[in-house]
Design a protein that fits this description.
With 204 residues, this protein is an alpha/beta fold. It contains six helices and ten strands.
C-alpha cells in the first residue's frame, strides 16, 4: 500500500506529502515536471487530465489524496482531474479518497462572512474555483468510494497550532486555519480514518 497525492507540489499538498513520508509511508506524487525522488517519496511526471497516467499511479489498496489547485487557464481542471482519479480507483481496486475542497462550496456558501462572499462574487477566478469545487465534491460524494471531503476556511501561512475545530465553532473563531494544520488533518485522516462519508469543515 502507498498513498497517492494529486496536487502534491502545491502549498498544502507538499506538506501532506512530507507528513506522510515522515511517518514512513510510501508516497507517490503526480507532477507536471519530473522531480528527483525523496525519502519515501516518488514523483511521476504527467498531467491529472491524462486518464492513462492517472491510472498508472494507482494500485489496489492505495489511499488517495486529492489536493488539486485551481488552474485559471482551465476552469474545470479540478473536476475533470477528479473524475479521472475516481475512475482509476474503481478500475484498480482502491477505495479510500480524501478531497481537499473549501469552506463556502455548495450549501456552506451561506456561512461565509458577507464581505468574503461579495469578494468572491466580483472575482472571476474565485467564482470559477468555487463552482468547480462544487462539481468535484458531487463526484466524490457519488463515487461509491470511502470518501472524506475537507473544507478548510481561509488557509494561511502561520505556524501549526493543532487547536482547530472540526464541524464546530470554537470559542473565538478566526475564520482561518494554518496550512500546516490542514495538512496534518488530511494526513491523519488518510492514515487512520475517522470521518468516512463526511464533509469536514475545519477552522481555528
Amino acid at each position: 500500500m502507498k498513498i497517492v497525492v494529486f496536487g502534491g507540489t502545491g502549498s498544502v499538498g507538499q506538506l501532506i506529502v512530507n507528513k506522510l513520508a515522515a511517518q514512513g509511508l510510501k508516497v507517490l506524487v503526480l507532477t507536471r515536471q519530473a522531480k528527483e525522488p525523496g525519502n519515501n517519496i516518488e514523483y511521476v511526471a504527467g498531467d491529472v487530465l491524462d486518464e492513462k497516467i492517472v491510472e498508472q499511479c494507482i494500485e489496489p489498496g492505495d489511499g488517495v489524496v486529492v489536493a488539486l489547485g485551481f488552474n485559471n487557464s482551465a476552469f474545470d481542471t479540478m473536476s475533470k482531474g477528479t473524475a479521472n482519479i475516481i475512475a482509476a480507483m474503481k478500475n484498480k481496486g482502491a477505495s479510500h479518497i480524501i478531497c481537499l475542497s473549501s469552506h463556502g462550496v455548495a450549501e456552506s456558501w451561506m456561512y461565509l462572512p458577507e464581505t468574503f462572499r461579495e469578494y468572491v462574487k466580483h472575482n472571476e477566478i474565485l467564482t470559477h474555483a468555487f463552482n468547480d469545487h462544487g462539481i468535484q465534491e458531487e463526484m466524490v460524494r457519488n463515487s461509491g468510494l470511502d470518501w472524506t471531503i475537507v473544507r478548510p476556511t481561509e488557509i494561511v501561512d502561520i505556524p501549526e497550532k493543532s487547536t482547530f475545530t472540526v464541524n464546530a465553532r470554537g470559542q473565538d473563531p478566526k475564520y482561518h486555519i494554518s496550512k500546516h494544520d490542514v495538512a496534518q488533518f488530511i494526513a491523519d485522516e488518510i492514515m487512520s480514518p475517522k470521518h468516512l462519508k463526511e464533509i469536514c469543515t475545519i477552522t481555528d
